[in-house]
Q: What sequence folds into this?
């Protein structure tokens, strides 16, 4: 790279950076462990959406 012209060469470098970033993201996704990705600890994570209508569902979050 770096022989065609300033703008085109910058474009090519940026495209190569994006391809490399995509490769890194794919590696991270492939290395992800199986199972749920949200904790069931209600003091840390929100409850499921269908439970949000009740005031009791958010009682642990009131201390924040």
A:
């Amino acid at each position: 790279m770096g022989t065609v012209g300033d703008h085109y060469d910058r474009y090519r470098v940026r495209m190569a950076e994006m391809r490399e970033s995509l490769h890194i993201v794919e590696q991270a996704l492939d290395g992800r462990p199986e199972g749920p990705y949200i904790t069931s600890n209600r003091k840390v994570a929100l409850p499921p959406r269908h439970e949000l209508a009740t005031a009791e569902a958010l009682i642990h979050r009131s201390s924040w």
Observations:
- The chain has a mean pLDDT of 81.
- The helical segments are 6-30.
